[in-house]
Design brief:
With about 120 residues, the chain is mostly beta strands. The protein contains no helices and eleven strands. The mean pLDDT is about 95.
Length: about 120
């Protein structure tokens, strides 16, 4: 079956770093753009970052630009999110998504279960 399994979350102090991973299986990983989205307690989903299928084009939300780096290793079917200079407002459950872009917009095909990131002193 299709699986997207996030890992690497945990408790980190403000200013610290964390690297999230998303291991994909059951579909052709290299044919999909991949995104990270997050959901803070009591808040809606917030888009964080996207990387295209080949890994050569990335985009970031203004709130994380300059601090987070998205990347992927298609040979390992794995997506990454390197998070530096973490802030308390980065606390959220982080999800990875597999997407494709169409004329009418972007469609998310698969979701992971999420991994909790808590930034606290």
């Amino acid at each position: 079956e299709v699986q997207l399994v996030e890992s690497g979350g945990g408790l980190v102090q403000p200013g610290g770093s964390l690297r999230l991973s998303c291991a994909a299986s059951g579909f052709t990983f290299s044919s999909y753009a991949m995104s990270w989205v997050r959901q803070a307690p009591g808040k809606g989903l917030e888009w964080v970052s996207t990387v295209n299928s080949g890994g050569g084009s990335t985009s970031y939300a203004d709130s994380v630009k300059g601090r987070f780096t998205i990347s992927r290793d298609n040979a390992k079917n794995t997506l990454y999110l390197q998070m530096n200079s973490l802030k308390r407002e980065d606390t959220a459950v982080y999800y990875c998504n597999a997407e494709r872009v169409y004329y009418s917009g972007t469609y998310t095909y698969y979701w992971g279960q999420g991994t909790q990131v808590t930034v606290s002193s």
